């Protein structure tokens, strides 16, 4: 099975190109005003054309209403939507139906008990994304650069299709992939030199570490 790799929070062509050159399967664009990675829909539309035919463009939103989603989808034509707020299962189903797009639903995880939250979303969301709970006082529901204890995912039904995220970087991704077997991984802060500033060298280093982890597990 090939591991999907999503580089999230892209705002500039050079970092997007580095992600694509390294074989990213997904590239994420953030639509959340408080984020240092927030992009205007029109700019995301320009950037996403670079990814067409090379990676899936994912639009990340937080409890967005229909008008916001309609405008974003029209301007950007994403391949997938990522819902990173408190969207209940009915809202996920409604968003999927309205836009005819696959949906990634994000969940904040601290311990194994938090995994119970996915039950009503099974068969509704196309994929889950497990992220760390935001630190106290954090303004962002994601992109905080903090990991959770990946071992809690051992309790998961192996049929659950999920991406692992939260504080991943080139130094810890090998250990994460030794402990758990996600369908994909997702990184944002770990490939940045400052909040919202993607670094081409760190993107290259992240993929290098992922490739090294793959070679070790194949050996
Ligand atoms: O990254 C953001 O700024 C963000 C803001 C609001 C909602 C979601 C956001 N990020 C979603 C992602 O998929 C991130 O890649 C994920 O949370 C992991 O981030 P990090 O821990 O920084 O690698």
From TrEMBL:
Reactions it catalyzes: N-(5-phospho-beta-D-ribosyl)anthranilate = 1-(2-carboxyphenylamino)-1-deoxy-D-ribulose 5-phosphate
Family annotation (PANTHER family): N-(5'-PHOSPHORIBOSYL)ANTHRANILATE ISOMERASE
Presence of keyword Isomerase: yes
CDD domains registered for this protein in UniProt: PRAI
EC number: 5.3.1.24
Pathway where this protein functions: Amino-acid biosynthesis; L-tryptophan biosynthesis; L-tryptophan from chorismate: step 3/5
Domain N-(5'phosphoribosyl) anthranilate isomerase (PRAI) as annotated: residue spans: 5-208
This protein's name: N-(5'-phosphoribosyl)anthranilate isomerase
Membership in a protein family: Belongs to the TrpF family.
Keywords per UniProt: Amino-acid biosynthesis, Aromatic amino acid biosynthesis, Isomerase, Tryptophan biosynthesis
InterPro entries: Aldolase_TIM (IPR013785), PRAI_dom (IPR001240), RibuloseP-bd_barrel (IPR011060), TrpF_fam (IPR044643)
Gene Ontology molecular-function annotations: phosphoribosylanthranilate isomerase activity
